[in-house]
Amino acid sequence: MAEIRLVNLRKAFDDFVAVRDTTLTIHEGEFFALLGPSGCGKTTTLRMIAGLEMPTSGRIELDGRDVTSVRAAKRDIAFVFQMFALYPHLRVKDNIAYPLRSQGIPASERKERIDEVARVLRIEHLLKRRISSLAGGDRQRVALARGMVRRPRAFLMDEPLGTLDAEMRSAMREELRGLHDRIGATSVYVTHDQIEAMSMADRIAVMSKGDVLQAAPPMELYLNPASLFVAGFVGSPAMNFIEIEGPLAPGATSAQAALPGAPELPVPALPEGASGQKLVLGIRPEHLKVGADEPISGTVFATEYLGSHRLVVIETPAGRLRARVAKGLALKIGDRIGVGVDPAWAILFDADTGLALNRT
Ligand code: ADP
Ligand code: MG
């Protein structure tokens, strides 16, 4: 199993930069996600790791060895495509055997290896079926089996659950993560779905327009986002953003929201030297306080039952705020209610650069 290192990795198509000077280390055995909106450069990054795309500059190391100009077939990395090209008319076991046959591995060893991956993936009962008779989730597992049977040093997966329906996606998330843990492979997983990345990955690199904005474990992205983009992209329901007039005096613990008639809000004190003309205060729905005595008055706009909790959308002079409240709290549309910000959980962003100013 391998450590994958990207050093100043760049890919330009003519004068369009798809991946900009990315430096990242993906640790051995890690489940690592590349997360970002469509077109941000995830697939291009993955294809460079696989050896299917030549970087414009920078390099790729596998276990410390520079493989930038090593051919894809020699990198020992399995690439699981969204629409993995299985042979529909062949039986499952012949599909899995395919890469072993082309490597000239003898029949007895082929059988041993196929049985092994079938056991790990729990598809032993499907080995004699034809691909065309399988449901989507089973096909996905066969596709993984075909990737795994070569015993690759790493797995690359590009939106592998993209074509499945919601229920199957959720089951396959657990399945894939469980599988990763059983085989201990280094996995790089590309997705635009933050729930997928947050629920599966040990660490996530959030990408936007060719840049990696932050690479961190899910909880850190959630609680300590480095920028407005990361804060807004990760977490559901989404973070609340309230515009604030700057500059803030050093040590100030309250500020004026930038809307007419908006109240003073408690804010976290900025570190020495940090400021901005315009600021944005970010606060997660579970860190808003809701109650008659809270300072920002508003009107309940909508409520949504989330099972263990309730989400309340409140129209206030500081904008429309989403708060997570106990499900027993009696609130209905049109009710007047107060909202408060817990400054201990708030993050101040510079509205111009988008960067968080008070990260811990
Ligand atoms: P993602 O997987 O995050 O959706 P991609 O890595 O596929 O994004 O693409 C990133 C950007 O690079 C996109 O704007 C895409 O149009 C562009 N791009 C990708 N491959 C090529 C190519 N072969 N030629 C020109 N532009 C490309
Ligand atoms: Mg893609």
From TrEMBL:
Membrane disposition: Peripheral membrane protein
Record-stated family: Belongs to the ABC transporter superfamily.
Keyword Zinc in annotation: no
Molecular function, one GO term: ABC-type transporter activity
Principal subcellular localization: membrane
UniProt domain ABC transporter: residue ranges: 4-234
Protein name: Multiple sugar transport system ATP-binding protein
Record's subcellular location: Cell inner membrane
Keywords attached to this entry: ATP-binding, Cell membrane, Membrane, Nucleotide-binding, Sugar transport, Translocase, Transport
A GO cellular component entry from the record: ATP-binding cassette (ABC) transporter complex, substrate-binding subunit-containing
PROSITE patterns: ABC_TRANSPORTER_1 (PS00211), ABC_TRANSPORTER_2 (PS50893)
One Pfam match: TOBE_2
InterPro entries tied to this protein: AAA+_ATPase (IPR003593), ABC_transporter-like_ATP-bd (IPR003439), ABC_transporter-like_CS (IPR017871), ABC_transpr_MalK/UgpC-like (IPR047641), Mo/tungstate-bd_C_term_dom (IPR008995), NA-bd_OB-fold (IPR012340), P-loop_NTPase (IPR027417), Transp-assoc_OB_typ2 (IPR013611)
Alphabetical list of Gene3D superfamilies matching this protein: 2.40.50.100, Nucleic acid-binding proteins, P-loop containing nucleotide triphosphate hydrolases
Top-level taxon of origin: Bacteria
Coiled-coil stretches noted in the UniProt entry, renumbered to this chain: none
The species this protein was found in: Amorphus orientalis
